[in-house]
Amino acid sequence: MAERETAAQLAEIASRGDQLGDILARAIPDERAAPAWELVTRADRILLLAHEKPDPDTFGSALGLAFALAPLGKRCVVACADPVPANYTFLPGRETVMTDLPDEDFDLVIALDAGELSRYGALYSRHQAFFDHATILNLDHHLSSSGIGAYAIIDVPSAATAELLTILLLNRGVPIGREAAICLLAGIITDTRSFEFEATTDRTLMAGAYLVAQGATPQDIIKPMYRMKPLAKARLWGRALQSLETTANGRAVWAVIRQEDLTAAGATPDMDDGLPAYLKDIEGVAMAALFREQPDGRTRVSMRADAPYDAAALCGRFGGGGHARAAGCTLAMSMDAALRTFIPVMEETLDAHSE
Fold first, then answer.
1. Fewest CB atoms within 10 A around its CB: which of 212, 232, 245, 298?
2. CATH code for the domain of 53
3. What is the distance, to the nearest Å, from the Cα of residue 284 to the centroid of all Cα atoms in its chain?
4. Residue 111 is inside which H or E element, if any?
5. What tens digit of pLDDT does each residue of 60-93 get?
6. CATH for 248
């Protein structure tokens, strides 16, 4: 009896998943999806590119697509200029990610979660001649992306590139197995901070529900990503929080991480992940920025903002971009110079709205 009940429950879950899949498949017009998939269909060996300073959306999109394409006979290589952060234990296939190209013998390059080749960092600079002549399919969701390659789908309504990929695969009738579902759900969960950010739509929630129906478990992503922290990460955050400063009557805050902080905490650069959002959650704060000193002396800024402020527009003034609520940029200057340059712009933005 219990076995029959379990079978019936599984059948019901599968049926709900099929219904969601049908709805999601219609969320992208066939005429928009078909040219992208034609490039995939014609290719045999495919390079899947994750952007530098990776997050779970770029890795989840690349690995999820690799898992989905494997049963179709596609030979995929996932590459990123930076290694997979240690806490991304929830991503199946993470051990296959390469930090350089094994060769340049690819029929197609799929550039994921960024719309500029420079965002792929050292991979692009080391193989620029190849990328400048390769057939590239660009899949992204950032408003600031200009689009690259032979064909680009920049789907701003998607809360994550993984949401776009879920819809695209379903539109093309490609099965999404459990491993692919886990990777894609990781991208959606982390780019929405567990469906909290305002970019979350009913379609985002449907995509998440569909991937759960395919076997992905939110808890397995949320716990290691947001709740579990190694001691070195806690120490790094402690040092950063000691540097906390505020301006504009507490409406803006910022903190800094210098190379010496990483050394003292025994931390790796990726361990600042989640800290900008933590700063933004301070009561009364409308804008938060984390300034990170890079090994080459430049300064990376990660910014978070509440409506009506546009983090992507502000970072865009310095050559960066991203989302309205979460964006970043790199300033070719020292930490102290970056603070003197960037913080007045934050203050100016806040004052302009007040006026």
1. 245
2. 3.90.1640.10
3. 27
4. strand 108-112
5. 999 999 999 999 999 999 999 999 998 899 999 9
6. 3.10.310.30
